[in-house]
Amino acid sequence: MTPTMEELSTATDHERVVFCRDPAAGYRGVIAIHSTVAGPAVGGTRLWTYTSEEEAVTDALRLSRGMTYKNAMAGLPLGGGKSVILHDLQDGDGMDREALLLAHGRFIERLGGRYVAGEDVGTSLADMAVIRRETSHVAGVAGDPSPRTARGVVRAMLAAALHRWGSDGLAGRTVAIQGCGHVGFHLARELQESGAGLVVTDLDPERVRRVVAATGARAVEPDEIFDVAADVFAPCALGAILNSGTVPRLRVAIVTGAANNQLREPEDGERLRERNILYVPDYVANAGGVIFGCSEVLGWSEEAVNERVEKIYTTVLEVLRLADQQDEPPHVAADRLVERHLKALQGGVSRWK
Q: Which pLDDT tens digit goes with each residue over 149-188?
């Protein structure tokens, strides 16, 4: 049974969770606002097939909290939110995508700017343009954020390499990339140009072929990627792929990727540490996309965006050094930095309260 809003507000630290319905459009959605302490809650809109509404709510809650932490770590004056549009399997090809997106836009508009949407898994820049027909509270319609996300992940890898090996060069290193979508493709191109060797996989064979053709990468089957002997593992697909079943299989020194919520449970970060695998928390490494996507909202120039993306390098080093000093896993150290920042802001009064 789907939890009520009262139950959710009691069981989680979210400010607001909205269940959205428009039967005429065939639309069901969830908008989760985790925090507006730093500013309006920004986060992508995911269009996905879930096994249940409970699963969709859980996804929205996890992702929206992650956005609060990502935006805070990136130094953005923004809070965290996320929304999902449920795509029922029985709808098949008969789904009226435009109607769903317009309905979603109407619900976003009712929140009066408390939540600002962007693209995510299952949605595109074109979809954001449709949503914007019903609300102005949409970010990232000016261009593809994937290159900036990939660039940020590269900067995170370089910092992790420096921390682990004493040198931030990736030439001669091998990187195993899980996920060859937009971000995975740009990441593979950058890494290939830096002299790294690549092993790649994806559920979509066509995406794999595209990356192999562009970079000369070696392709493996999806489940084989966890067993590849490499220097770095880069998760760039869906979340929860670092867990009790996969962590023991990894044969790498570093994990740094673009996927959100890579740890299935917090304990999985400790499992990586016990295996002496250096983990860069996902929301630290993959912030380049949201930095670019929100530049229009914040009025930042391209130069300012690029500077922020490059700064991911120093942010990662700060997190890893703090983790060493505190003798704790990097994901705990990163959370500590974010929570300290949010606590400092708590004394202010959010216009959304």
A: 999 999 999 999 999 999 999 999 999 999 999 999 999 9
Q: For residue 21, is it within any domain?
A: yes
CB atoms within 10 A of CB 341: 16
Residue type, 36: T
Domain shared by 213 and 336, yes or no: yes
Tens-place pLDDT, residues 197-231: 999 999 999 999 999 999 999 999 999 999 999 99
Task: Assign residue 303 the CATH number of its domain.
Answer: 3.40.50.720
List 82, 311, 343, 353, catalytic entry: 82
* Cα–Cα dist 181/207, whole Å: 6
Residue at 346 is within a domain: no
82 is a catalytic site residue: yes
**Residue 108 belongs to domain spanning:** 5-69+79-131
Identify the CA nearest to 231 among candidates 259, 270, 260, 199. Answer: 199
